[in-house]
Amino acid sequence: xPLIETSDGPMWKRRTPQxxxxxxxxxxxxxxxxxxxxxxxxxxxxxxFVQDAPKQAFDIATRMVPPKFSYMERLWVPxxxxxxxxxxxxxxxxxxxxxxxxxAARNTxxxxxxxxxxxxxxxxxxxxNSLIWALILVLILxxxxxxxxxxxxxxxxxxxxxxxxxxxxxxxxxxxxAIEATGASRMQQMLYGIVPQVLPTFAGVGVFRWDxxxxxSTILGLVGAGGIGIELSGSxxxxxxxQVSMILLVILLTVIVSEWVSxxxxxxxx
Amino acid sequence: xxxxxxxxxxxxxxxxxxxxxxxxxxxxxxIALIGPSGAGKSTLIRCVNRLVEPTKGxxxxxxxxxxxLSSGALRKARRKMGMIFQEYALVExxxxxxxxxxxxxxxxxxxxxxxxxxxxxxxxEAYRLLDRVGLMHMADKRADELSGGQRQRxxxxxxxxxxxxxxxxxxxxxxLDPKTSRQIMRLINELCAxxxxxxxxxxxxxxxxxxxxxRVVGLExxxxxxxxxxxxxxxxxxTRIYGEEDWEATIENVDDDDEVEEDDGELVxxxxxxRTGGNE
Lengths: 270, 280
Fold this sequence. Notes:
The complex is a heterodimer. Chain A is an all-alpha fold. Chain A has helices at about 15-45, 45-50, 55-65, 75-105, 110-125, 130-140, 145-170, 175-180, 185-215, 230-235, 240-270; strands at about 5, 10. In chain A, strands 1-2 form a two-stranded antiparallel sheet. Chains A and B meet through α8 and α9 of A and α2, β6 and α4 of B.
């Protein structure tokens, strides 16, 4: 509503009065909800426990230092397992996600029904957390690294396929059109017109997901699906706090290394 | 010979881009297709190789009716029609050589194209073409490292390596500076003459159209409103194609201008300055 005539010339405001009112009401509503939720939570909290939270935290912290460095010799194998779970899981995920992404992208899907199925696969995979996948798979496959690897793979399919198909949909169509005009088949159009354009996305998504999977695979052991999480849950259950702090330290270092590697790889490819 | 019979295209949005166009282009003739934006120039050439599916009418290349072909036969027919694009439409992340060789995709199997194993003859022809357009030293550069004029020359190589009977050229100079535009248009013209190729060149620039074609077709709102020699583009004709404007300065003596450029680069600018002045 831009223009208002006033006595000293035209005036311009960004929004109409109705819109300004609507926005104000929106903010007001938001604040009321926050205030109400605040009160609800506060009523249901046992403040007695919260009051000594700093003391408890300090207590655990003191019991955690110094980390038990000698424990490291028992951690090498679980750490290696964790890395393998993440890496193999990502490879499995990409192998499934690439065809799913091509089936889900509007410009490459062979048929709307195929697209619907592909989208469903993506949503189904994304809606289940990898810890829950692991819980189920441990029941089916028994505890161990295999269950963890497949859990990571299944969870990552949706994530990778979604980012990949969005990448495929965003390509420059004129390059594909030019390849089509030469008399190339549909598969050749994909190979020459589409794949070169989405390759950086594929590499970026793969490395990004690998990075996330390293973090996710550190907790899978909590449900028995292999990796360093088994040691972590064992140490917490036996109240071996110096071991817990050692494990947390190792996880931290692993994540820092993976972060560094993925940054390097991404820089090299894109 | 290319023949269009009553070619019509109505887009899903209801826009009627072509209204029953009849056109015949003999072998070896280069025609310029001029007209305002939205006149249907792009649609027309895309209806020929069916990148855009015409709603009515027929297209014949020689004796072959393109409009009736199944998708497999259409792919075969497309191999005989090279296309050159406004924004070059090179695959940016492939090398110059891969871009040129992609013009042979219609002739090689999927597996061969995947592993980039093109026949020796194709590779030799690719190098010959790159040499012809002066880009031999760029063969292994990635396409996105090239300048506009260089990219368009790669685009030309990609079209020519198809060994086409017909070139479909969509605004080849729209993204180029005036000097490069002339060089590209001259190159297309020379190559068509060398190979006896017919070509339809969509072009905005009336002066370039006059300089580099044997015949000019004016399109307005999906219908042909002029079809004749380049020097028949009188102010009245241009008004019919584009609408009312002062056209006097746009129309030049084509032959003089062309000769001047061969001798001396300095004088070209005069011609261009004059032209720009006329358009405003």
